[in-house]
Amino acid sequence: MASATAPAAAAPTLAPPLQQLRHLAEELRLLLPRVRVGEAQETTEEFNREMFWRRLNEAAVTVSREATTLTTVFSQLPLPSPQETQKFCEQVHAAIKAFIAVYYLLPKDQALRTMTLFPTTVSGLRASRCLKYQEITKLQLF
């Protein structure tokens, strides 16, 4: 006679933390080719430059915060659990997609001008993240 209760569904197994990070890196690499000059929207609405830059800055701050969190939790032992890693990776991925979404609000006629400024902004963010990571690792050595 068959049991009246169905067996409990097995919980999905998550990849180990470092494998999840590799997967996140690959997903982010796949997003890059989609961000090109000229892919921004065409609109008849008046472009509000101040609003755009405010929203882009907010999105950049969110990306920076999530990247800092990810860097911090992986700069020390023990590594986060697979469940925690999944949460961190999802937050980084969502923050970067939100940043790209704001970029797409930029009208095509403004895109070229903005993209000439963008590499400098990204370089500044990378430099600040690098310095932050160096500060964290120095603290752990002592």
UniProtKB/TrEMBL annotation:
<protein>
    <recommendedName>
        <fullName>Cyclin-D1-binding protein 1</fullName>
    </recommendedName>
</protein>
<dbReference type="InterPro" id="IPR026907">
    <property type="entry name" value="GCIP-like"/>
</dbReference>
<dbReference type="InterPro" id="IPR049317">
    <property type="entry name" value="GCIP-like_N"/>
</dbReference>
<dbReference type="Pfam" id="PF13324">
    <property type="entry name" value="GCIP_N"/>
</dbReference>
<feature type="domain" description="Cyclin-D1-binding protein 1-like N-terminal">
    <location>
        <begin position="56"/>
        <end position="111"/>
    </location>
</feature>
<dbReference type="GO" id="GO:0005634">
    <property type="term" value="C:nucleus"/>
</dbReference>
<comment type="subunit">
    <text>Interacts with CCND1 and GRAP2. May also interact with COPS5, RPLP0, SIRT6, SYF2 and TCF3.</text>
</comment>
